[in-house]
Design a protein that fits this description.
8 strands, alpha+beta, 4-stranded mixed beta sheet, 4-stranded antiparallel beta sheet, globular
Length: 127
């Protein structure tokens, strides 16, 4: 009986761990700058390469951060060494981790099951 109770407890414990929900947190920048943007993104994910280059056409959205989580929102996951360098024909602008968190504090989170996204869609990101 004790062996059965111990086995049952272990099984329930393992089942609880296996059912923990994994969320995909995605941050986008919508290009409202009226011209193409080149973006160099560093330390933007816990799932893939730490540095990427992205081109965003006027009016399009670009993925600038992507984190898998067990419940925490993306603001809690952005590292201090995050960097987003945005360049257009006029100049460039760099957004670090603290600045990205500040911008996201006023952005609505859109949730669809385990997919969660935030879109920064103002001209303040334009160089």
């Amino acid at each position: 009986m004790i062996k059965f109770a111990g086995f049952s407890l272990l099984f329930v414990s393992l089942t609880s761990c296996a059912t923990q929900q994994v969320y995909n947190n995605h941050v986008y920048v919508e290009n409202r700058c009226g011209q193409p943007l080149e973006m160099k993104i560093s330390n933007s994910s816990n799932m893939h390469s730490l540095e990427r280059n992205v081109t965003s056409a006027a009016g399009s959205r670009a993925l600038v951060a992507s984190f898998a989580s067990y419940g925490e929102d993306v603001i809690e996951q952005i590292p201090a060494n995050y960097s987003l360098k945005i360049t257009d024909a006029i100049g460039s602008k760099v957004i670090d981790g603290a600045q990205l968190k500040q911008r996201l504090s006023g952005v609505e989170k859109i949730s669809d099951g385990t997919q969660r996204e935030w879109t920064i869609n103002d001209t303040s990101v334009c160089p």
